[in-house]
Amino acid sequence: MLPTVRRVTPAEHAAVADLTARVYLTEGYGDEGYEPSLRAVAARDEQAEVLVAVMDGEVAGAVTVATRGGEWAEQAAPGEAVIRMLAVDPRLRGGGIGEALVRACLDRARADGCHTVRLSTQPTMAVAHRLYERLGFVRVPSYDWEPVPGVHLLGYALTL
After folding, report:
1. Global pTM?
2. Structural domain total, the chain
3. What SS3 class is residue 74?
């Protein structure tokens, strides 16, 4: 069964914050210094758009998509969307939740007139890399960067 993907509601902010922080911190994709950003769901949704995948009334996954620049658009140029903080409940992985969320981001980017969608991912996120590549993203080494010393991110992009 595929999830329903839609914009987060204020009542879901805490659940999204907990899911995102739990996934990133327990799986080694961040530390306590990154946790406030992971939990800043209301701010992300105000300045970008936070989408949720809902199954059986529960948040099964979440992602942020920034289509108009701003704080959450990491290095994007005008006309570029950025996907951030994709998180899927570990108990529900493998059922298409991540793919549904990324496809919804692509739809939002197209609707907002973006010509490119970018994202940054850690080298160890191999499952995510396979998902992105299956959906048409390609590695763009010139987009690689270090948001903080010692955290190397790989750049991917998809031309719409």
Report:
1. 0.95
2. 1
3. coil
Q: Name the H helices within 2-148.
A: 13-26, 35-39, 41-47, 97-111, 126-134
Half-sphere exposure of 13 (CA within 13 A, CB side): 12
Collect all residues with Cβ–Cβ distance below 8 Å to 25 and sequence separation of at least 6: 31, 32, 34, 35, 38
Task: Kindly report the CATH number assigned to the domain that includes residue 146.
Answer: 3.40.630.30
Query: Which domain covers residue 133, as residue numbers?
Result: 4-159
Distance in angstroms (rounded) separating the CA atoms of residues 86 and 62 = 6
Note the pLDDT of residue 70.
92
Q: Is 109 helix (H, G, I), strand (E, B) or coil?
A: helix
Q: Do 50 and 40 form a contact (C-beta atoms < 8 A)?
A: no
Residue 77 neighbours by CB distance under 10 Å: 10
For residue range 99-131, what is the model confidence (pLDDT) as tens digits?
999 999 999 999 999 999 999 999 999 999 999
What is the token pair recorded at 153? 């991110």
Query: How far is it, in rounded angstroms, from Cα 63 to Cα 52?
Result: 7
| Beta bridge mates, 63 | 51
